[in-house]
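Fig. S4 source data, part A: sequence.
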Amino acid sequence: MRRTALIALILSLMTVPLLAQAPQSSTKATVPLPHVAALSPAAEQAMASVDPEKIRAHVKFLASDLLEGRGTGARGGDIAAEYIATQFALYGLQPAGDHGGYLQKVAMLGIATQDDSTFALVPDKGEPMNLRNRVDVVAMDETTKTVDDLDAPIVWMGYGIDAPEFNWNDYKDVDVKGKVLLMMVNQPPSDDPKFFGGGKALTYYGRWTYKYEQAARMGAAGVMLIHKTDMASYGWNVVRNSWSGERAYLRDDPAPKLKVAAWIQLDVAAKLAAACGMNLDEIMAAAQKPGFKAVQLPAKLKLHIVSTVRPFESSNVIAKREGSDPKLKAGGVIYSAHYDHLGIVPGMAGDNIYNGAQDNATGVGILLEIARAFAEAPQSPRRSVYFASVTAEEQGLRGSQYLGLHPPVPAKEISLDLNYDDVPPLGMPEQVNVSGAERTTFYPTVERTAKEFGLAIVPDSQPGAGHYFRSDHFSFARVGVPAFAINEGDKYQGHDAEWGKQQARDYVAKHYHQPSDEYYPEMDFRGDAVMAQFGIALGWQAANQPATVGWQPGDEFAKKRLAASN
């Protein structure tokens, strides 16, 4: 028997006792069912069937040590994919992956920086500054060379942004080819609505992924991002934990790559600036103002980087409930959630299994419960409904990037993607966050449905964190598909909003991308169930609309939608 078939058989045998272990409860008794006027009896039945304890059971299994943190390309990640595929099969959903199966294979390369790599900042005057791997710097050679050397000038690039629509170009009048660019994460702050969108909301220009991508396009040899907690929205421990193990890349990605993609500690950057006769606070402040000019520093980065490079395959897991309309069923609505986490990170003392219970076993548990509810509904909506649990989100949205480029139906036929990522199991929510929904023509439906649920729509309480660009819905948006995530706000029954904000702050500080993100019996999954019901209500309505959802006129992704339709 083939290995995958054997795993699937074992998991199917495990499923019944696993679910039986969870306390069975009446959803109607624990999660009130709202009446949504636009929904059919079949849709209401699907919503009513959502059970928070079934979500709990999935989270408990996916976050167990048995799955070893669900690392991309690792044994635990593969078991998670097989588990999800087995659930889809048990629900009776149709496979929508490769070759009539549930799995969509994603060819990847794993790159891991080895401990015998060396890094040094070498000012023209003064002593070299040797950097400790994982302590002062984390770095990756994206070129797939196993051994690489670099001795390159350093250019202070400010934010490293070229945004013509905001009249901002840090690359103007500077030659960066073959050089290493020192830059900040985030973007220039402003309250001007015409300047990077105004307010505190981060655009994609502020994300570290953009900065690496743009530098590589401009021919730079490398990038050193300065880590500052308030700008990155997470501590150095998150950077260290996320980058200390193997990083995965799409094997056939034609985009240019950097010899060194790195983060350095704030105090390291300050020492480098001082060695170059500059004050880091002053040059960072100057870089926030229009008219900033990049400058080559009297210093070089010298490194010897040793990497292991491993080709492997991971899998997205995709299923569908076929639509009821003979014509519209050719298109669809997609629900998405990533199943991967960081796996086992070597070199860490104590518990080094990164279980990823909240991030993102919760999202997968919700996705599976939505899939079960749709599968058991007596009638499907007019369009087909797809369920995609993707790999390698923690590696830079690689799995959803591949899915966006290789969707089960053409991107122009996908009406909407609804994504779930990191949904706190904290009890009954009184608010919902749907950041990005306002960019779509579907937003009036979202507003009406939230009101019928008794949920107040609230903006992201951490707009500077750039959450819209940090999860898998962004991969769909990049190919033109209207997409956003569904999550709880800060206000929960029995608590004020400050309590919810404090829970979020504590999670980021103590558990995000750390081994302590584990399952606990005290977790309250009623809120996750409400988010599942809300998602069913939205997805069902989108699937029944005669026309596909669009972007608001002038939105940055509208051009992609138009191009996909031509």
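Fig. S4 source data, part B ends here. The mean pLDDT is 92.
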